[in-house]
Write a structure and sequence with these properties.
10 helices; alpha/beta
Amino acid sequence: MYDLFIDSDEDISLSFAKENNLKLISMPYIVDGVTFKPYEDFEIFDAKTFYNMLRGGTIPTTCGISPTDYCNYFEPSLKEGKDILYIHFSRKMSGTFMALDIAIDELKEKYPNRRIELIDTLGITICSYIQIRDIVELYKKNATIDEIIAFHNEEVQHYATYFFADDLKFFKRSGRVSNLAAFFGGMIGIRPLITMSKDGIMTNIGKVKGKTNAINALVKYVKDLSVDIENHLVIIGQCDAMELASLVRDSLQAEYNNKLSIEIVDVNPTAGAHCGPDTVGVAFYAKNR
């Protein structure tokens, strides 16, 4: 037996986690000196209030968690005699994984007969979410840890994610995006197009002018790269930008004669603090990233 762990940077709702017996790790963020932990301090993320706060000039900071925190999350399962499989956001995007490694070393020494395995989604937010949705289906069918790891190794590069941001000050502050030209932020109406690379790094791949062109660019990426899309979920992530997200959804459905299964989700607060309000993206099953 094993427990399946996820973290709050992957856009999974508390209700979905409870429904599917997932264990939760909260990635905190700080506002005006106060630390907030998703899932623990609130059950439902109030996206509108959070992103309006960012629009008003308050910019949260994010931080990792300690080895002790990781141990506190994992140890109850180990004490029950269960193994652990943790699906996490990209290791390339946070220093918190140094603390995770320390915790795992400690726990393996304490529980030598238990397994602790990791799956790196090489993504964050909807890029991780779409993978978790497929893995959860296997988990519900009693797939073993090794079967899920094998599935992930085979499929991880088929989960493509593309998105555009509205205000680059958030990305420039965090430094989370490679190849992001600073002058973009000073050009009115210019929106960078960003992808999750095959190595799990947010990478700027171009720019467009205007919301319509940005939406059309996302749709084109889906058209050009998708594989068997009618038999896979399409996930649209939005940072209090439901109108834009709905336009992306409607454009995709128009292209595919309303045959797509599309879900729109709120981008979680720790990821949203870096990309900012009015960011919209799409994750889908593709030929390659």
